[in-house]
Please model this.
Amino acid sequence: MDINVGPLTLVALSKFPLIRSGDDLGRVIKDCLKENDLTLQDGDILVIAQKIISKAEGRQVGLESILPGEQARELAQLTAKDPRVVELILQESNQVLRHRPGLIVVEHRLGFVCANAGIDRSNISQADWGGEESVLLLPADPDLSADRIRFSLEECFGVNLGVLVIDSHGRAWRNGTVGITIGLSGVPGVVDLRGEPDLFGYQLQVTEIAAADELAAGASLLMGQANEGQPVILVRGFPYRLREASFSELPREREKDLFR
Model:
């Protein structure tokens, strides 16, 4: 397998504007690249925080409009959570897997396991809702969102690109959150190294690299989690060949998951 052994650089786009519903993210990113005196080259990847995609796609929901059902009210009592938020969690999920006070772990309708269906209150303006309390849902189709941004920028710059949509998730057995991929376009989700030789000629038997998630984690370091305001990272020198792919490469099949 051909691997790029050159330098890998990650650059956060500074001066990124606040995003509102209906904004054209491809245009906003293009303008921000110009503001940062950057251009795109063949093989570059843009790693984008899901939050700005959700905002642009109108995924902010006012809680006053949510009527919790019986299941949501019962689960809210067990978890000490707002029953309206619990109702949204249930609507965005295939299955509730675990819960404790303050936390509901679900299989999201997009196919991955996460806390509270990825629904978040942080870094969203309540002023847009007239002061009404609101939350932000994950993008409806992150792969499609990545496609749209990628094709828009490829047309503008005349180069081949990759796009990752990432979110911060907790992990079994470990404290803290880490950036992971929830949508992608033009970037391999998994790189299969089975059959490749190691340093001593041994053929690898099981090695598959979650390349998209590894890159997501690095980009998340630059994005930050508080008031940094850097939701887009330009990556150059990704070691693996870009190719068409989808998020479906990343979740482990249920029948092979020993921890459900």
In short: The radius of gyration is 19 Å. The chain has a mean pLDDT of 92. The CA atoms of residues 119 and 137 lie 5 Å apart. The domain at 9-57+140-251 is CATH 3.30.1330.100 (60s Ribosomal Protein L30; Chain: A;).
